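Weekly structure sync, notes
Attendees: PL (lead), two postdocs, one rotation student
Agenda item 3: pending single-chain targets
PL asked that the sequence for the first pending target be pasted directly into the notes so everyone works from the same version. It is reproduced below exactly as submitted, 101 residues in total.
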Amino acid sequence: MSKKKQQDPLFKTGDRVAEKPKPRLHTVVRASVRDRIKPFTTQRYGTVVETVYQKTTTGRRVPYVKIIWDHAASPSVHSQNRICFEKDLNYHINDFFNAHE
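Predicted structure, written out during the meeting:
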């Protein structure tokens, strides 16, 4: 059995990143519920603190990034597939909504 090459991390410590757009559908009628979930539906920006590796169920080590979001006090770990560079966010938004030429 051959060994697969470990995936290289896309982001380095100190990079400014944003969360890629994702589909959100909130069919909420009550205003109290809408107000409660509103803080969790905004676009997030942050800085990469470090790269950590986590194993998949097949044993492969995949890079994840630990990000400190601008509005948060502590870092959180995210798959690098859900993150993009802050400067590339407009491209990803257009691509997500299939609006690019």
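Discussion points:
- Residues 16-96 form one domain.
- Residues 14 and 85 are 11 Å apart (CA to CA).
Action: rotation student to compare against the earlier draft before next sync.
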